[in-house]
Design goal:
This protein is of the alpha/beta class and 267 residues long. The protein contains nine helices and seven strands; from the N terminus they run αααβαβββαβαααβαβ.
């Protein structure tokens, strides 16, 4: 059902990159870290956020220009420490978001309240990131055309988003928007102001490849990231979810709930 293309473009990450992000976030001593990270460590499981943060950390080089699209109040909601480190590492960090929560972001160097299609800058950016933004984009062609205009040749756009063919996004698409917040609050303690309508018009690998290729990008890295956070609010259900994940992998079966992480290089 995922309709996965066969072409390979694996992430350029080593396990040590993920371990570093994990330990910087939660600590290296399993006796003092929280029960959630401790359980995930026991299963040798890294979250999609860990993969995204490690990828961005690799691409944000000293002095580079970085545009974070859909920045909201946080660059990395689960890893403020890394966001602070990367904010100091880069030369310019612009947070872009049409939502008023951008005004609460104290980590970016510049705040711009606008859609990506409306934004114009004096300089182009070596790195542009979209964390859980693509599912809200109503006009992918216009959005990626703007990204092409804003990305320096050889620069990278990182898209971290939901796979529209995973079970939860399918349910989300079918259920009216007014009912979206309650399960998010119960399962992930999300605030209502952080719940936005979804359209899923660029939430498959093929859709991303197609729209980025048409605007002068090449897919340089891509991964489906198994997402075992649906029931992570409770210890027993997290253990159950990770046990199912490990069993499916042992059988060579793809875990059904997953996210997409793609890196697109401006040609």
């Amino acid at each position: 059902m995922n309709g996965r293309p066969q072409a390979r473009a694996p992430l350029k990450l080593a396990k040590r990159d993920l371990v570093k992000v994990f330990q910087d976030k939660y600590g290296s001593d399993s006796t003092v870290m929280g029960w959630g990270p401790r359980i995930r460590s026991r299963f040798a499981y890294f979250t999609p956020d860990d993969y995204y943060e490690a990828t961005v950390s690799r691409l944000v080089t000293p002095g580079c220009r970085w545009l974070d699209v859909g920045s909201g109040r946080n660059i990395f909601p689960s890893n403020r420490r890394l966001a602070e480190v990367l904010g100091r590492r880069c030369g310019r960090l612009v947070g872009l978001d049409p939502d008023p929560t951008i005004e609460e972001n104290d980590l970016v160097h510049e705040r711009v309240r606008a859609n990506i299609e409306e934004y114009h800058a004096d300089d182009s950016f070596e790195v542009i990131t979209l964390r859980m933004v693509a599912e809200h984009v109503a006009d992918p062609e216009a959005a990626v055309a703007a990204l092409a205009r804003l990305t320096t040749p050889g620069g990278h756009v990182v898209v971290y988003t939901i796979n529209r063919w995973s079970p939860i996004p399918i349910v989300t698409y079918l259920v009216p928007f007014r009912f979206h917040h309650l399960p998010k609050r119960l399962l992930w303690k999300a605030q209502e102001r952080d719940t936005f309508p979804v359209v899923y018009r660029m939430n498959t690998r093929r859709a991303l490849q197609r729209v980025f290729r048409s605007h002068g990008f090449a897919e340089s890295e891509f991964a489906y990231l198994d997402d075992c956070r649906t029931l992570a609010v409770f210890r027993l259900t997290l253990i159950l979810e990770l046990s199912i994940w490990r069993s499916l992998h042992a059988l060579g079966i793809t875990y059904p709930e997953n996210c997409l992480l793609g890196v697109y290089r401006r040609c």
